[in-house]
From TrEMBL:
Domain of life: Eukaryota
Cofactor(s) needed by this chain: FAD
Species name: Pycnococcus provasolii
Protein name: D-lactate dehydrogenase (cytochrome)
Region (Disordered): 22-95
Low complexity bias (residue ranges): 22-59
Similarity comment: Belongs to the FAD-binding oxidoreductase/transferase type 4 family.
Annotated Pfam families: FAD-oxidase_C, FAD_binding_4, Fer4_8
Presence of the UniProt keyword Calcium in the record: no
EC numbers for this chain: 1.1.2.4
Length: 1117
């Protein structure tokens, strides 16, 4: 089997450099043996003398001993270090507790450090820990201790908040290994964080958070093996990204079969493989058989003592068996005991026949012989939530992804009918996915017009109505048809199942994407709908339970009745029925004791229904976390529960690895450290803190992510809203610290591009919040800036004429003095002006040369027809960047021409009557003002432009062409509000719709080029069209995408805060064979050129280069 290796996920397969991920046997052995020099410090498992409680085994009550508390940690050395020495231990902890959590009664009477949430005071050990890792292991800038960013990192998608004392951004396995040694030595617990989309409180801590994501290109390497049947990945790759890499691999190598990773959580485009493995996440299609447990091949694991086990490496395995004999024999002993206990082994097998992520993966201890402890350890890591070790690499067996698929949306009159049908399908067919919707969910679907049209029986449906969204897939069309027929027959033949309307064929399977995407989109939208509709100040909760599919209908009825009794009127219930897995989504406030008590009672009852009554799983796929840690014993029974404690102590005797998660002796832990959701601003109040937006944000590696901006802003709003009499000195100081830190991290480094909205399930644009804050800030005390903006708006034409001259002088100066001088001078000016003066770089534009266009009049008439095509006219909206900024110095490919000159050339070639708007040079869409928060000036310029457009286009009759996508996107909305028939064309659409039919692509490039689709074009849905056009220009060769969601330029912000584009574009890796790149925004092109070293210019240059006037109609056929 061939081995293809790639470095850097953003690099397309064809261009990726060879990377050796798997270390050689000798290196691994060296790692193992060198780390074995560090004493494991593992005390033998405790013999179990503890208190006795009533518990259950497999639903049977029994009496047994609960595990004793872990042995106390050795007293920490009381050393001090800068940043911590000055903080009295008690004050820090008390402040944290008071500020950030609404918690049920918590014992803060003790000032002694205890390894439980809320009592991990800084008694000196954290200072010592920092001292031990700073400079020697990680540089100081990757150790975060300030109040604001630690608060921001305290947020995951769960409804728990714990604020880490220290956040360490880790870059590689060696760092993790060395840090773990120090954490173990100084007894400072650590929690790993991938994407932080966990829902059960397993990715938060009040101790040390080790963040492996949003730290550049680290932990993002991968190797695709053979045709894609296997892939080796590092933990920071996003699940969806891995699937895209596999798809690109197939495209490039021409393999017949497409592969994907088995686990398919609905969060797959945001969560990372480290989190997917550590949570054993799954989703709609993977079921039990394709989750990580069943698809993992190998793993590299970093243990608490810093040792690295590479399960793929014989030498590493052998060395580990010797160096970790105590751990290995403990695992062997556990497996032997469990396998000898038939009842327990049967319970474990039964529990994993359905989805289960409650507790540790005990199936590892029954599925493999005790003689194979490495295989057992590897599988135990799955679903261990960072409590047994760190996963630094995994090799996964992928599963086939079939192109042939079809879905049907079938409605049933009752819960029992719907759930019963799911059971029949599971037992008698090879169906691929069955998603269930309860009546509350169907009421949400009714809001979708296409759904009402496609499935009319959901409209006004009776209480109890249940629907199944069924998907079949096939290797080929024949296989697909066979599966569909099987499903239809199974439902028809099941006498006890009624279908609404009595005819299952009234709900046909559709292979049409436009139809089945409607079904799947409403399914994916169910969580956000509840999230968006909830009362301000409440959180959205998602419980995740499972039972044997035969019992699903009964369990669902009980749960719906329970929610009604506890007055959760917005609760809805839906999920992966094929696996007996239901998600229960509802809103919950944690604002006072009554709300917490209501939650507590409901949780207790929910657990009793699911675990006791139906023998089900309290966490089917979201993992235990803190949320169901107190109920693990209820679900599993005392025997299995005690074995889990033994297991934990074998790997982590002192509770250093994510303590309190999965197993927790505090029976109230699920109702402590609850996250308040204070109102902050209507723009962001619906935020569910899921974190889906983070990977799209250009400032994610630099300052804050959108989720973190919202989190921090919520906390500032809470503090600001406090009555002066309530505000303590500490609160006031904290607010000041937040406000100071916010200016740079929250406000200045937000590009306000709104790419966060593209991934947000409740469609929040954090950039809008930031723009409104900028606007408020300016109104509150920046009269000079406002006056300057007003002056600029009124004299735009004059300024516009000055810019090309200024750029001409600057580029001339740069050629004489060198770019270095200009860069240094501009950096100094940028610094003293507080980021108002742009920083010079080597790719700054020259002044743009003007092009001649006739000015449009209302009475304009179409030009004569080109060839046999009808006449075409268009109005040219020449955006400020294109008319002022010419090509960069040294950009041979641009031939010294400006974008307007290129457009002139294209219009002439295609015989398109392109007329300029009257007063073009004094007009501006207003984007330059709006992104700075200069709202009044933005609105006045925008209005002026819209009025001019309405006139010039004859009230929308003539299309408008704009050379710059962001400017067009900005003006389009307001223009269309005034004249709904207005048609806007950005460069790609203009080329495809108007120019292309009138041109021959007779001189195509025979090589790939790079493209960067600006955020605005992505939002307009032009990404695919951009790729198609460039491919056409390159003789069918697909372009190499920058892979950057947003470059961070945002008008000129990236020039004023160059660290923003530098941070975003550190992910830009273009293969060596790429000579140049194309985009549709001049300022973005500057930053892309600057960070890739290759000239980026408007895509119009490429179109002009490869086209000639059309010869005849036959040529176009
Ligand atoms: C709206 C929404 C929908 C969701 N839908 C689903 C769904 O359909 N199915 C599903 O299963 N889940 C779902 N989830 C939950 C969550 O997205 C998944 O559990 C996901 O796999 C978590 O990955 P992450 O990268 O966010 O991990 P994180 O949350 O960062 O971490 C998860 C756990 O893994 C540990 N960890 C992280 N990296 C490592 C490592 N390298 N080594 C060891 N431990 C590590 C962490 O300490 C933590 O305990 C959903 C979440 C949201 C918000
Ligand atoms: S802004 Fe949207 S995507 Fe981001 S955390 Fe909030 S809800 Fe999730
Ligand atoms: S607007 Fe852009 S920079 Fe600002 S939070 Fe959203 S994605 Fe990040």
């Amino acid at each position: 089997m061939g081995l293809l290796a790639h470095k850097g996920a953003m690099v397309p397969v064809a261009a990726a450099a060879r990377l050796t991920l798997a270390r050689s046997a000798s290196a691994a052995a060296a790692a193992s043996s060198s780390s074995s020099a560090v004493p494991p410090g593992a005390a033998p498992p405790s013999s179990g003398a503890g208190s006795t409680t009533a518990a259950t085994t497999g639903g049977q009550k029994q009496s047994s001993a609960t595990p004793p508390p872990p042995p106390p940690p050795p007293p920490p050395p009381h050393l001090t270090a800068a940043g911590f020495a000055s903080q009295p231990a008690m004050k820090t902890a008390a402040a944290t507790q008071h500020q950030v959590t609404v918690s049920a009664a918590q014992d803060l009477s003790s000032s002694e450090y205890q390894n439980v949430d809320g009592l991990r005071y800084d008694d000196g050990r954290y200072a010592t820990f920092v001292e031990s890792i700073r400079d020697t292991i990680v540089p100081p800038e990757r150790i975060i201790t300030d109040a604001v960013r630690t608060y921001a990192y305290g947020t995951d998608a769960s409804f728990y908040r714990l604020v880490p004392k220290i956040v360490v951004k880790v870059h590689n396995e060696d760092e993790v290994s060395q840090i773990l040694v120090q954490a173990n030595k100084h007894q400072t617990p650590v929690t790993f964080r991938a994407a932080g989309t966990s829902l059960s409180g397993q990715a938060v801590t009040d101790s040390v958070l080790m963040k492996l994501s949003h730290t550049g290109d680290h932990f993002r390497n991968y190797t695709i093996h053979g045709n894609g049947e296997q892939i080796t990945v590092e933990p920071g790759l996003i699940g969806g990204e891995i699937n895209r890499l596999l798809a690109a691999h197939r495209r490039t190598c021409g393999h017949e079969q497409q592969y994907k990773i088995g686990p398919d959580p609905s969060s797959i485009d945001s969560c990372m493989i480290g989190g997917i493995i550590a949570n054993n996440s799954s989703g709609m299609c993977c079921g039990v058989s394709q989750n990580t447990y069943h698809t993992l091949k190998d793993m590299r694991i970093v243990l608490l003592d810093g040792a690295v086990l590479d399960t793929a490496d014989e030498a590493s395995r052998a060395s580990f068996m010797k160096s970790h004999a105590h751990l290995v024999s403990g695992v062997v002993d556990l497996a032997t005991r469990i396998q000898a206990d038939e009842e327990l082994a049967a319970l474990i097998r039964r529990k994993y026949s359905i989805k289960c992520t409650t507790g540790y993966s005990l199936n590892a201890l029954v599925d493999f012989p005790p003689s194979d402890p490495i295989e057992i350890i590897k599988r135990l890591m799955i679903g261990s939530e960072g409590t047994l070790g760190f996963i630094s690499q995994a090799t996964i067996n992928t599963v086939p992804e079939y192109d042939n698929k079809a879905s049907a949306f079938v409605v049933f009159p009752t819960v029992k009918d719907g759930a019963g049908a799911a059971s029949v399908l599971r037992k008698t067919t090879m169906v691929d996915a069955v998603e269930l919707f309860d009546t509350a969910s169907l009421r949400e679907c009714e809001g979708n017009a296409r759904m009402r049209e496609l499935v009319p029986s959901i409209v006004g449906c009776d209480e109890g109505t249940t629907a199944l969204l069924i998907e079949c897939r096939g290797k080929d069309k024949a296989a697909l048809d066979k599966r569909i027929a099987e499903v239809v027959r199974a439902i028809k033949e099941a006498d006890h199942i009624n279908v609404t309307g009595n005819d299952v064929e009234a709900y046909p399977f559709s292979e049409d994407k436009d139809v089945f995407n409607v079904y799947w989109d409403v399914r994916k939208g169910l969580i956000p709908i509840v999230g968006a509709a909830r009362e301000t100040g409440t959180s959205m909760l998602i419980e995740d339970v499972a039972c044997d599919v035969d019992k699903l209908g009964d369990m669902m009825e009980d749960l719906i009745e329970m929610f009604k009794r506890h007055k959760y009127h917005d609760a809805s219930c839906f999920g992966h029925a094929l696996e007996g897995n239901l998600h229960l989504v509802f809103s919950q406030g944690f604002r006072n004791d009554e709300e917490i008590e209501r939650y507590s009672q409901m949780m207790q009852e929910l657990c009793e229904i699911v675990a006791d009554k139906y023998g089900g799983s309290l966490k089917a796929e979201h993992s235990t976390g803190r949320n169901v840690a107190p109920f693990v014993e209820m679900e599993w029974g005392s025997k299995a529960y005690n074995l889990m404690w033994e297991l934990k102590r074998l790997f982590d005797p002192h509770g250093i690895l994510n303590p309190g998660v999965i197993l927790n002796e505090d029976e109230d832990v699920h109702k402590k450290a609850l996250k308040a959701s204070p109102p902050a601003d209507a723009i962001v109040d619906r935020c569910i803190e899921c974190g889906f937006c983070e990977s799209n944000c250009p400032s994610r590696d630099l300052s804050l992510t959108p989720r973190q901006r919202i989190t921090v802003y919520r906390e500032m709003s809470r503090l600001r809203a406090m009555d002066a009499s309530e505000l303590t000195v500490e609160d006031a100081q904290r607010l000041r610290e937040f406000e100071t830190n916010w200016t740079y991290n929250g406000e200045q480094t937000c590009a306000a591009d709104g790419m966060c909205q593209e991934k947000c399930p409740v469609k929040i644009n954090t950039g809008e919040l930031i723009k409104s804050i900028r606007s408020r800030n300016l109104a509150e005390g920046h009269a000079t800036e406002l006056r300057a903006a007003d002056f600029a708006a009124r004299n735009w034409g004059t300024l516009d004429r000055l810019v090309p001259t200024g750029l001409g002088i600057a580029t001339a100066a740069a050629s004489v003095l060198g770019d270095g001088v200009l860069t240094s001078v501009s950096k100094a000016l940028n610094s003293v002006s507080g980021g108002w003066v742009p920083v010079w770089n080597n790719y700054m534009p020259t002044g743009a040369k003007s092009a001649h266009f006739e000015v449009a009049t209302n009475a304009s008439s179409p030009a004569p027809a080109a060839a046999e095509l009808p006449p075409v006219e268009a109005i040219y909206l020449m955006a400020c960047p294109a008319r002022t900024m010419g090509p960069a110095r040294g950009d041979e490919g641009a031939g010294g021409r400006s974008v307007p000159q290129v457009l002139r050339s294209l219009a002439d070639k295609a015989d398109v009557d392109l007329k300029l708007m009257p007063n073009a040079t004094s007009l501006c869409c207003g984007l330059a003002f709006s992104s700075r928060g200069l709202q009044a000036a933005a609105e006045s310029k925008g209005d002026e432009m819209v009025d001019a457009l309405v006139k010039a286009t004859d009230n929308g009759r003539i299309p408008v062409v704009c050379d710059t996508s962001p400017c067009m996107a900005h003006i389009q909305m307001s223009a269309m509000a005034k004249s709904p028939s207005m048609q806007f064309l950005e460069p790609v659409e203009f080329t495809q719709r108007i120019l292309a039919p009138r041109l021959d692509f007779s001189n195509p490039r025979n090589e790939p080029v790079a493209i960067h689709v600006p955020c605005s074009s992505k939002k307009l849905g032009k990404e695919a069209a951009f790729g198609d056009l460039v491919s056409k220009c390159c003789n069918g060769t697909a372009p190499v995408s920058s892979g950057i969601p947003c470059c961070g330029m945002a008008g000129d912000r990236g020039l004023r805060y160059p660290q923003l584009t530098a941070s975003s574009l550190q992910h830009l890796k273009l293969p060596d064979n790429i000579k140049d790149g194309y985009s549709t925004s001049r300022t973005c092109e500057i930053s892309l050129s600057n960070h890739s070293g290759k000239h980026f210019r408007s895509v119009l240059y490429l179109v002009d280069e490869v086209t000639t006037p059309k010869k005849s109609s036959s040529a176009s056929a």
